[in-house]
Amino acid sequence: MPNVKDVTRESWVLSTFPEWGTWLNEEIAETVVEKGTFAMWWLGCTGLWIKTENNTNIAMDYWCGSGKRSHYDDAGSRKMMDPDHQMARMSGARQLQPNLRAVPAVLDPFAVSEIDAVFASHTHTDHIDVNLAAAVLNNVKKKTVINDVERDVPFIGSKFATDLWRSWGVPEDRLITVRPGDVIKIRDIEVTAVESVDRTILITAPPHGEVKGMACDDMDERAVSYVVKTPGGTIYHSGDSHFGNMYAKHGNQFDIDVAFGSFGENPRGITDKMTASDILRMGEDLKTKVMIPYHHDLWTNFKADTNEILVLWYMRKNRLQYQFKPFIWEVGGKFVYPDDKDKISYNYPRGFDDIFTHDINLPFPSFL
Ligand SMILES: [Fe+2]
Ligand SMILES: [Fe+2]
């Protein structure tokens, strides 16, 4: 029985967050993936957990932090946007961006006990996570097999991503830097790094200060996308990529079953996330079978209506002979390919599967 004398802010935080507790960790661990399929879970933003029929588990872009939490800094002054921030650079704006986290963090990183590789597409804070890094280093004892060699669970990403993990104290022998074209085998999964089309990462500091007239870094060192080939099908993970013609090239190169695109309603004067029309063009260019928008869940100032994708898809699918279907997902939800490929929309499990398996206990049956 709780007593108000024992309740503190700390006790509230620990008893309430993460909101899903270890529910999803348990669901993933208990899931037996049928032969010829793969299962995945949406962890929010562009975070994915992928599990194969041979119990290979990888996480991509898993992040469990938060966005803005206060209008003020520690000294009590109203915060302004850092002029070096990529959004300030592209917009000339200085008001603080109201990007508050709109969905819960559904997976407890400290309850992760089995994982074969941690991937990050790029270094923006919503795509790479120090908590997961610490939890994997401290809690995951089981080794994995990378390129047919047994080793500790690696952290795989672009040069900038492995530089960031290194700066957090991740040991050198855990880091694998990839560039477009590199292929890594993780037990029964084969991941190919491909070109990112994330123009926002190109204008992200470093370098700090004035960048007018400076040559941009090589995108390939800052961000990569991933093609994940499992025994049950192939996934295209595009990180924060914008729309680009590269999707048609990758659609020719790979036989993609499920593709993900960063969707969002850009604030006025900002171009960062893809719109509904871009998501459909991406699906067509990649020649995917299923096209799933992600990232629109996360930030309060980039929220977007996924019905736009469905309406446009219904309008265009016959005229343009679309060969793919969209799938509108929910954070924390599970997707099994190919079982769920025609579902169009996700709904959380509604429960009560065992209804009336026990006697009801009511004052009188006609209560019902
Ligand atoms: Fe980003
Ligand atoms: Fe992002």
Give the SSE layout.
Elements: H1 9-16, H2 23-30, E1 38-44, E2 47-52, E3 57-60, H3 86-91, E4 117-120, H4 130-139, E5 144-146, E6 149-151, E7 155-157, H5 159-167, E8 175-177, E9 183-186, E10 189-195, H6 199-202, H7 219-222, E11 224-230, E12 233-237, H8 246-253, E13 258-262, H9 276-286, E14 290-294, H10 307-316, E15 325-326, E16 334-337
Parallel strand pairs: 3-4, 4-7, 7-8, 12-13, 13-14, 14-15
Antiparallel strand pairs: 1-2, 1-16, 2-3, 5-6, 9-10, 10-11, 11-12
Helix pairs in contact: 8-9, 9-10
The protein binds fe (ii) ion (2 copies).
Domain Metallo-beta-lactamase: 99-296
EC number: 3.1.1.-
Keywords: Hydrolase
**Tally of DSSP helical segments:** 10
Mean pLDDT: 97
Cα gyration radius (Å): 22 Å
Strand elements, count: 16
Organism: Holdemania massiliensis
GO molecular function, one term: hydrolase activity
EC number: 3.1.1.-
Protein name: L-ascorbate 6-phosphate lactonase
